[in-house]
User: What shape does this take?
Amino acid sequence: MKTLIAIFFLVSLPCLAQQPKAGSTQQASGSITTGGAFQVLSTNNSSRNSFEFQNLCNVGSNCVAKTDNCYLFFGGQTATATTSIIVAAGGYYLRSVGSIPGDTIQVSCDGTSDKFYGAVQ
Assistant: This one.
């Protein structure tokens, strides 16, 4: 009987381990108000678990040009295209492991009204 209890405990152990709780997803999708100017996509959030972004410029008529780039900047400082992460048309950026910055996330794209998908968890 002790053997059966021990086997049950060993088999059940992974089920008892607590998994990190995923936070609720905050949609941050939108469009660029003024091409070339940075706007806030997400404010400071020290408990951020993940961040994903997709430049939708290669899909339909989502952008001025299907080749427009978008730019991501982490931090509250003045953002520029040269100090940012470039996300090409149709490109995708995901940050879900390791240290996730809790800084403000700013975004810009080449054209006014360029659309993007964003989600923060």
About this structure: The domain at 21-120 is CATH 2.60.120.770 (Jelly Rolls). The two ends are 46 Å apart (CA to CA). Confidence is low (pLDDT under 50) at residues 15-19.
